[in-house]
Amino acid sequence: MPTGLLLVDKPQGLTSHDVVARARRALGTRKVGHAGTLDPMATGLLTLGAGPATRLLTYLVGLDKTYETTMRLGAATTTDDAEGEVVSTADVAAIAAVTDEHLGEGIRALTGEIDQRPSSVSAIKVDGKRAYDRVRAGEAVELASRRVTISAFEVLAVRRTPDAIEVDARIDCSSGTYIRALARDLGSALGVGGHLTALRRTRVGPFDVADAVSLEALAEGGVSLLASPAEVAARLFVALEVDPAQSRDLGHGKLLALPQHPDAEPVAAIERGTGGEHPDRLVALISVRQGRGRTLVGFPIEQQEAAE
Boundaries of each Pseudouridine synthase II N-terminal domain copy (predicted)? Predict the structure, then answer.
């Protein structure tokens, strides 16, 4: 059973669960999970964990992300994307009145820290039931706004026709941001309505889609593209090198004496290997407080050896 992080370039038309199912077949293990769902219409970077490395996925969900998208201004839909039914369209005069200056003002208003109301057909749970299931059942769903950060909203191209304005953009945002909602809110602010027609995730934290494997390549044997838990943790967190005795202590739930280490959480406790068949090993993610290290998540050696 392999262990590590797998970056997959998800094609359009598949759910995130579909990708997980294919990865399970390709890797020969049921222990595969993902961090950060992509809608079927979206493409791009999906981060998967295999084996004991699935314990790291919780820490990947909250990473910031980059998307490339196309927004169509001039019509609103039930789902805030192209898969929904059109509920309103703007007339030609209203669309023509949206100048580049107005467009820029609308985008600037949606940049920085903003309050965003997620799409009603999101996977957010309302009283234990997914919002999109309630919408499909005919319920009217209005989700509460949440604070998100749009650190960059860069326009790449603008195409105009009499009945629409298409905007290609690159967006850097915090976890929990709905790009569909940005398209909806931009169109609403401009008085013409808007929805998403294309979405591609190109980055999750330090991981880039350029390093991702296609499903075809994975099926042909992409196991070697797995990044080890130690490599992933070292990219995400402060790393602390521990010796074999400290590794054993952490494995037994003991506290480590770390008088010189500043307070931090999580810290990746890594035991250095000798290379080859003995690579670096992630022992645990720990919390350091007042010179003492306590295990948050352990990565037992017997599990990692069984996975190799």
Answer: 24-179
